[in-house]
């Protein structure tokens, strides 16, 4: 069974009630279900990790580096200065997609640069929780296999 790592950083565990005017009303559980639905056409499963601590996210990347076909990563504010997460992702061989719910370039200046994005296979920003579905589709495209049925 192939597995996708869904990695979410600080403050993403409170989606649905955290500034819904910016981040929407979908919860992290809603997003996990949507990603699982997308990748199910390949027979893939999702392992979801959310943590407010960068060290725990680094550990998750290392722990899942040999057991996953790819990852969807929303580093949250760690995109700005999450150097240890960046280094962990640099050693993560499968493709991975960086996702942000809001359009970070339409927000405060300090959000305009990601130390992580240059390593990603792709980046999806500003499309709300739908961006996670697009990231899942991108991983399947990068995998290059035809969808499995049944």
Automatic annotation (TrEMBL):
<dbReference type="InterPro" id="IPR036441">
    <property type="entry name" value="DHquinase_II_sf"/>
</dbReference>
<comment type="pathway">
    <text>Metabolic intermediate biosynthesis; chorismate biosynthesis; chorismate from D-erythrose 4-phosphate and phosphoenolpyruvate: step 3/7.</text>
</comment>
<keyword id="KW-0456">Lyase</keyword>
<comment type="function">
    <text>Catalyzes a trans-dehydration via an enolate intermediate.</text>
</comment>
<keyword id="KW-0057">Aromatic amino acid biosynthesis</keyword>
<dbReference type="GO" id="GO:0009423">
    <property type="term" value="P:chorismate biosynthetic process"/>
</dbReference>
<feature type="active site" description="Proton acceptor">
    <location>
        <position position="23"/>
    </location>
</feature>
<feature type="binding site">
    <location>
        <position position="111"/>
    </location>
    <ligand>
        <name>substrate</name>
    </ligand>
</feature>
<dbReference type="GO" id="GO:0008652">
    <property type="term" value="P:amino acid biosynthetic process"/>
</dbReference>
<dbReference type="GO" id="GO:0003855">
    <property type="term" value="F:3-dehydroquinate dehydratase activity"/>
</dbReference>
<feature type="binding site">
    <location>
        <position position="74"/>
    </location>
    <ligand>
        <name>substrate</name>
    </ligand>
</feature>
<comment type="similarity">
    <text>Belongs to the type-II 3-dehydroquinase family.</text>
</comment>
<feature type="binding site">
    <location>
        <begin position="101"/>
        <end position="102"/>
    </location>
    <ligand>
        <name>substrate</name>
    </ligand>
</feature>
<feature type="active site" description="Proton donor">
    <location>
        <position position="100"/>
    </location>
</feature>
<keyword id="KW-0028">Amino-acid biosynthesis</keyword>
<comment type="subunit">
    <text>Homododecamer.</text>
</comment>
<dbReference type="GO" id="GO:0009073">
    <property type="term" value="P:aromatic amino acid family biosynthetic process"/>
</dbReference>
<protein>
    <recommendedName>
        <fullName>3-dehydroquinate dehydratase</fullName>
        <ecNumber>4.2.1.10</ecNumber>
    </recommendedName>
</protein>
<dbReference type="InterPro" id="IPR018509">
    <property type="entry name" value="DHquinase_II_CS"/>
</dbReference>
<feature type="binding site">
    <location>
        <position position="87"/>
    </location>
    <ligand>
        <name>substrate</name>
    </ligand>
</feature>
<feature type="site" description="Transition state stabilizer">
    <location>
        <position position="18"/>
    </location>
</feature>
<dbReference type="Pfam" id="PF01220">
    <property type="entry name" value="DHquinase_II"/>
</dbReference>
<dbReference type="GO" id="GO:0019631">
    <property type="term" value="P:quinate catabolic process"/>
</dbReference>
<dbReference type="InterPro" id="IPR001874">
    <property type="entry name" value="DHquinase_II"/>
</dbReference>
């Amino acid at each position: 069974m192939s597995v996708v790592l869904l990695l979410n950083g600080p403050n993403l565990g409170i989606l649905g009630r955290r500034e819904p005017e910016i981040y929407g009303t979908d919860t992290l559980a809603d997003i996990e279900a949507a990603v699982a639905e997308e990748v199910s056409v390949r027979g893939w499963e999702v392992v979801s990790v959310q943590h407010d601590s960068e060290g725990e996210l680094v550990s998750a990347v290392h722990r899942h580096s040999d057991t996953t076909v790819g990852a969807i990563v929303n580093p949250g504010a760690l995109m700005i200065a999450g150097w240890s997460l960046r280094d962990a992702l640099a050693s993560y061989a499968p493709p991975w997609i960086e996702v942000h719910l809001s359009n970070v370039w339409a927000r405060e200046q300090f959000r305009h640069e990601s130390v992580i994005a240059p390593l990603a296979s792709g980046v999806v920003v500003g499309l709300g929780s739908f961006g996670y579905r697009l990231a899942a589709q991108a991983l399947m495209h990068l995998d290059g296999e035809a969808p499995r049925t049944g």
